[in-house]
Design a protein that fits this description.
alpha+beta; Alpha-Beta Plaits; 2 domains; four-stranded antiparallel beta sheet; 10 helices; 4 strands; elongated
């Protein structure tokens, strides 16, 4: 019963965050002909060129990426992502395109804030807004590549496409501002670092270590002794990505609700970052 209640609550959170994203699209970015980042930006460019419904384009473009993620990332993350993508597309059919401001600077900033807030909430609770988030999750799981740089280049390609379409730099520059604001809001609400280190003090060492290795992530087991109780316990240290942080939280809460977890920012990792099963 608790599992189904949790699933329903998280799905409602995904739907609510999707409505916020849709508001950013329909009330600020689309009326001014601006772009968001990721697959939504691709859908917007395609919609501006063809006149097709951007919401349904956004859904259609995400379908193959979601199917790819289902094979690689697991059911829970993708189910929440499907809920998020579908809810965003449906919300865009309900929320009308309204030109709330004639100032593109305000549209870029407030649109970026709304899209970033909705995306951060989705990431925080174990889902995503689809598109480049899922691609980044797959890449960060199997290759220790600079995902942020990769996403930057993908977004840049979308913005360049808008320049060729409009023959005007202004919408492209405002779109870049919106994408920047979105990223900063995600960093503020979720986590600013793409890699984090988790220190987990637990009595369920073997179970937790085995599940962490399946993610796949390496685990270091350290012997510790409590300063107050003098009780000896194990501490697991593992480096993961912010895309997997929600999965890590749920895993620890499920296997050992009494575990003490400290998550710290990781600036860089030198050495092998992937787990054995990822090789």
């Amino acid at each position: 019963m608790n599992k189904w209640v949790s699933l329903c609550l998280y799905s409602l959170l995904m739907a609510a965050s999707s409505a916020v994203i849709a508001c950013g699209f329909q009330l600020f970015l689309i009326p001014e002909g601006l772009l968001s980042g990721g697959i939504s930006g691709v859908a917007m460019v395609a919609g501006y060129i063809t006149g097709w419904n951007i919401g349904w384009l956004y859904f259609a473009l995400n379908v193959p990426i979601l199917l790819w993620g289902l094979k690689v990332l697991g059911r829970r993350f993708i189910v929440y992502s499907i809920v998020s993508v579908a809810s965003t597309s449906l919300s865009m059919q309900v929320i009308p395109v309204l030109d709330l401001t004639d100032e593109p600077l305000l549209a870029a900033v407030f649109g970026g804030v709304l899209v970033g807030t909705g995306t951060a909430v989705a990431l925080r609770y174990g889902g995503s807004s689809g598109g480049f988030d899922i691609i980044a999750s797959i890449i960060s799981r199997y290759r220790d590549l600079p995902v942020g740089i990769l996403i930057f280049f993908l977004n840049s390609a979308v913005v360049i496409a808008l320049i060729f379409y409009n023959r005007n730099w202004d919408p492209a520059l405002y779109s870049m501002l919106s994408i920047f604001v979105t990223g900063k809001v995600i960093d503020a609400v979720h986590t600013p670092h793409r890699k984090v280190t988790a220190f987990i003090v637990t009595n369920r060492t073997e179970e937790l270590a085995a599940r962490l290795l399946q993610m796949p992530r390496g685990v270091t087991i350290l012997k510790t002794r409590g300063g107050f109780t003098s009780a000896e316990r194990d501490m697991l240290m593992t480096v993961t990505t912010r895309y997997e942080l929600a999965e890590l939280r749920k895993l620890v809460r499920t296997l050992d609700p009494k575990a003490f977890v400290n998550i710290v920012q990781t600036v860089d990792v030198i050495g092998e970052f992937r787990g054995r099963s990822a090789r």
